[in-house]
Design brief:
Layout: H1 2-10, E1 20-23, H2 29-41, E2 47-50, H3 53-61, E3 77-80, E4 84-85, E5 91-92, H4 99-107, E6 112-117, E7 130-134, H5 139-147, E8 152-155, E9 157-158, E10 161-162, E11 170-175, H6 182-190, E12 195-198, E13 200-201, E14 207-211, E15 217-220
Parallel strand pairs: 1-2, 1-3, 3-6, 6-14
Antiparallel strand pairs: 4-5, 5-13, 7-11, 7-12, 8-11, 9-10, 14-15
Helix pairs in contact: 1-2
The structure holds ribulose-5-phosphate.
Amino acid sequence: MESKKIAGERAVDYVRDGMIVGLGTGSTVYWTLSRLGEKIKQGLSIQAVATSVQTESLAKEFGIALIPFSKVESIDLTIDGADEVDPEWNLVKGGGGALLREKIVADASKRLIIVADESKLVRHLGKFPLPVEVVKFGFEWTMRRLSGLGCSVKPRLSGDNPFVTDNGNFIVDCSFESIVRPRELHREINDIPGVIDNGLFIDRASRVIVGCQDGTVKELNSGKAK
Ligand SMILES: O=C(CO)[C@H](O)[C@H](O)COP(=O)(O)O
């Protein structure tokens, strides 16, 4: 928990007065939101776009001014978490089910800072099941097509019911043993009818901030993205 906190908080050092900031989703970003709230009390002035209903309500709690995404031309900086980060900074995201809005907001952002604890750094993506957002209609068929890509598939549940995203869709978690060619896999998955998007984020991170168990924070800044 402490390593998530120090990573999440550190990212706030990159936020400047007047910025439009994208707010990711998850337990690491929670600490970003809480630190942003403190800085706002001390006079920082920003506007923010949330990537989930959960983040929207936390932002309100922390006194962060939100604007609708539809009113935004571009976002200066987005801070978000990840489930896995490989040495090329390809990411798996969507553990919290917010991958679609997270990807749209990341796409509109000049910079994407990823905050994570050390356990998220992996040699190859794939240990964490890859979340795929699919439409409800025909999702059983879409799952069959996904399993044809060589993974085992599980519809995500919330208790006994299917998990429903903020966009009204389902999530299918796809377990590949190892994702060797993430770029190709990203395209293959999104080519399947019924798939809306998947949790692979390729060449999107501009910086990765990692909280370590010994209390230090590592900042990696050699990615290929904008
Ligand atoms: O992609 C996400 C939500 O859709 C999260 O950023 C990801 O699951 C990491 O979450 P956490 O910081 O709680 O470990």
